[in-house]
Amino acid sequence: MSNQFLLIAIGVILLGMSSCSKSGEKITYTDNSPVINVQVNTLKEGSSGQVLSASGKIEAADNARISTRMMGYIERINVEQGDMVRKGQLLVRINSSDLLAQQAQIDAGILEAKANLNNIEKDLNRYKRLYENKSATDKELDDIQAHYEMAKARLESVKQKRNELDVQFSYTNIKAPISGIVSARMANEGDLANPGMPILEIESHKDLEVVAMVPESEIGTIEMNLPVTVQVPAANEKLNAKVTEIAPSAKYTGGQYQVKASLDSKSELLKPGMYATVDFPVQGKRKMGTLMIPRSSLIKKGQLQGVYTISEDNRALLRWLRLGKTYGENIEVLSGLTAGEKYVLSAEGKLVNGSKVNY
Q1: What is the CATH number of the domain that holds 141?
Q2: 3-state secondary structure of 339
Q3: Which of 50, 64, 84, 105 is the most buried (most CB within 10 A)?
Q4: Quick check: 30 pLDDT over 60?
């Protein structure tokens, strides 16, 4: 029994010592991750900038969509997509068997009308001699003269039909209206071509332009002949251009106005269809109180975009943002950041949410 009391007493003493140790100890968390040096900036309100950026696409200033003006089966297409063509080169031939049948009929009509006119002309000359000899009356001469005029008009009518047929024949041989590259082939030999149906598309790479869409709120700041800067990532080019056309309406473009600018560059790296960013120098009064950050500071994950902000204990905290318009190298912040907050511009290492930073 005495041994049992001794064991219980020892257990109570050890429990008390353990409790005292825990109550007097301060629990801390250790973080062995390195401190990353960063460059930060403080968000401030200001002007929305002097450059408006808009997405655009490189297009050929001179292009042609090839189609036929008559119905018929495509007999021959002499070019493929990517081929170079010269102005006047034969591109497409439409089957003309129906026209050939009409041609034979009209040519026969011309021969008949000529023969009839020759006979009546001989009769007219004979009646003129008879009339001079007082052997034909005025009415007889007038009648034969009228027959002659009708025969001549009939011949002219048949000849006019032949001219119209020649025009239709010209439609069966479709030639290139411009020199350039065949950018698209939309039909094949044997297809039935209808008037207006596109068969080929030709683009001239000699003169290129960029077509951009500008929102309604900004179109008033764009002027004709305005110098702009065009960035083409696919060609790694930064080019100069000049505004040549501003659409008068945005009725069919969802409130976006189409603006065209001619490119000064003749670089062979540029191709129609390449995407571009057009920077327009903004004219006139700009909206104040706008929050802007550099596009280079953005962190992108899927469709989300944000920045790393700085907490009170110098840790990087990822903040997703709602962004607005792009102005050159900057972009408008609509929500997610407030004026006076610090955010990371760049870092010397890879940041994750909660990284310790130094600036």
Answers
A1: 1.10.287.470
A2: coil
A3: 64
A4: no
The sign of the CA dihedral 177, 182, 188, 191 is negative
215 shares a domain with 160: no
pTM strictly above 0.85:
no
- Collapsing DSSP states into helix, strand and coil, what is residue 154? helix
Q: Name the residue type at position 233.
A: P
Beta bridge partners of 37: 358
Domain assignment present for 9: no
d(CA 326, CA 277): 10
The pLDDT of residue 290 is 76
Helices (H) and strands (E) in the chain, counts: 3, 22
| CATH number for position 191 | 2.40.50.100
Q: Which residue shows structure tokens 């065949």? A: 182
Say if 30 falls within a structural domain: no
Rounded to 10°, the helix 97-132/138-172 angle is 160
Would you say 218 and 65 are in contact if contact means Cβ atoms under 8 Å apart?
A: no
- Could you give the CA distance from residue 105 to residue 287 in angstroms, rounded to a whole number? 75
Find out whether 157 and 106 touch, Cβ atoms under 8 Å: no
Asked if residue 163 is part of any domain, the answer here is yes
**pLDDT at 48 (0 to 100):** 53
- For the chain, give the mean pLDDT: 84
Residue 130 and residue 228 in one domain: no
User: pLDDT by residue (tens digit) across 143-163?
Assistant: 999 999 999 999 999 999 999
Q: What is the DSSP letter of 301?
A: E
pLDDT digits (tens, 9 = 90+) for 111-140: 999 999 999 999 999 989 988 888 888 898
Residue with token string 């900038």: 49
Task: Indicate which CATH number applies to the domain containing 43.
Answer: 2.40.420.20
Structural domain for 148, as ranges: 97-170
CA dist., res. 306 & res. 300, Å (int):
7
For residue 49, the model assigns a pLDDT of: 57
Same domain, 69 and 195: yes
